[in-house]
């Protein structure tokens, strides 16, 4: 594991930008068409639509705005991982791949195209996937925190990404994945960990983003989905019996402040993710746990968005 303060891991900031030029980026839009005609009716709260399927409440919405955000994040991860969809060294001809919490299904579809030999199954509590998919890709509506009905020892690769505000019992989920993988199969989890980082002290201690990070930690703990759970994944994998457990930590800039062009692009993606996705991320969460009104949330987000656009503040997520 790399320590965030390692000198050789410092991201060089771009000091050539003009603060007056602003930091807005255009909305990326979705590469997939929403299947609103076949989506089950969700629950509307404060103008956002949330899934009602599953035993536990999921903190993120399932409306078109959220689906566009998920697809944009798919491109962001592709850049972050240097044009890779995953890191696990799976075989060239896998037979069965499972995508947990597949969202719009975009990862499942891409991987099905990459591996014609594999049957790729995407599962989610919200039926927000497209109807036209590769012949070796299919989707199921299911709650992955309940007992799995698939055959054990059957998957070559199980994948999950950004199950934020979704999983209450990671060890149980990891245990189910272990039992359903073939011997020699791989499990890979990816997630932004909401522990704010800054290596050069450009982020003030009492800044809006610091207060947001603290509020996220407190509220997600109360919600039962601690935002720092990914820091415990490696230990949980090893305790279950997985071998060759590898943890890779990247720094994801929160805006286009880095000098490096790839990291600058990733920062632009993440800034858009935050500017357009913050309301969906925290409205239900802060209301349920911190008892904030929707009006309080929106006032706070105005201040927060201003700081996110400031490229003189060199923030990142692990």
From TrEMBL:
<comment type="similarity">
    <text>Belongs to the methyltransferase superfamily. LaeA methyltransferase family.</text>
</comment>
<dbReference type="InterPro" id="IPR029063">
    <property type="entry name" value="SAM-dependent_MTases_sf"/>
</dbReference>
<dbReference type="GO" id="GO:0008168">
    <property type="term" value="F:methyltransferase activity"/>
</dbReference>
<protein>
    <submittedName>
        <fullName>Trans-aconitate 2-methyltransferase</fullName>
    </submittedName>
</protein>
<dbReference type="Pfam" id="PF13489">
    <property type="entry name" value="Methyltransf_23"/>
</dbReference>
<feature type="region of interest" description="Disordered">
    <location>
        <begin position="1"/>
        <end position="30"/>
    </location>
</feature>
